[in-house]
Amino acid sequence: MSGRSGHTPHRAAPDPDQTWPGLIRVSVELDLDARSGAELDTVLRGAAVDPGSPSEVAVDVGGLAVCDSTGLNILLRARGAAVAHGRTLRLKGSNLQLLGLLSRTGALPWPRGTPRSPSA
Question: Whole-model pTM?
Answer without folding.
Answer: 0.74
